Amino acid sequence: MTETGKKVAEATKQRAAVLAHMLRVLRERLGEDQAVELMSEAIYAHGRDKSLKGYSHSARTGDLVQAAREFAGPDPVKQYQFAPRIVSADGAEAVIAMSRCPLVEQWKEMELPAEDVRLLCRIARSVDFGTWEGALGFLLCFEGTRGEGKEECILRVRKNVSKG
Questions:
Q1: Nearest C-alpha neighbor of 23 from the set 108, 121, 106
Q2: pLDDT by residue (tens digit) across 27-38?
Q3: HSE of 156, CA atoms in CB hemisphere, 13 A
Q4: Using one digit for the tens of pLDDT, what is the confidence trace for 71-84?
Q5: Which residues contact 127 (CB under 8 A, 6 or more apart)?
């Protein structure tokens, strides 16, 4: 990995630490439910806005295979951090696996309780819902995550038949 890639990976770990501290502070002041709701809403909006700008017209207008290719693309930094790969993809459904997560790694290094790691993972994956559902108009379901102790995060993305 290049020096730049290592710096990006370190920045991602720092983001994980910030998320953990934000959850702690917001949970103390507002309660867990509201803390989770506010953090998830903000992260979803970021995923949506970033993806509206970062995905091709084809991906943004319903080409699920193209959207999956772009999500799991060959970007070396993304590959280094998350190692996304397409398990299967056709016009109706895509399954994507990610075998790494620097966020979960950082939360475990911080020795957070497993329950907090699961909760932070749920909050952080709001970015993916912002991408797939908010910006691209597909339906997303997680079928296990590294934050839940699984070997990989499995994303199942489907065409939204009620859209358009």
A1: 121
A2: 999 999 999 999
A3: 4
A4: 999 988 888 899 99
A5: 43, 44, 46, 47, 50
Select from 3.40.50.740, 3.30.1380.20, 1.10.8.60, 3.40.50.970 the CATH code of 3-158.
3.30.1380.20
Partnered with residue 93 across adjacent β-strands are 158
Per DSSP, the three-state class of 60 is helix
Q: What is the dihedral of CA 148, 71, 87, 41, to 10 degrees?
A: 30
Q: Is the pTM of this model over 0.90?
A: yes
Tell me the domain boundaries of the chain.
3-158
Positions of the chain with pLDDT under 70: 1, 163-164
For residue 146, the model assigns a pLDDT of: 97
Q: Which of 19, 150, 155 is nearest to 93 (CA)?
A: 155
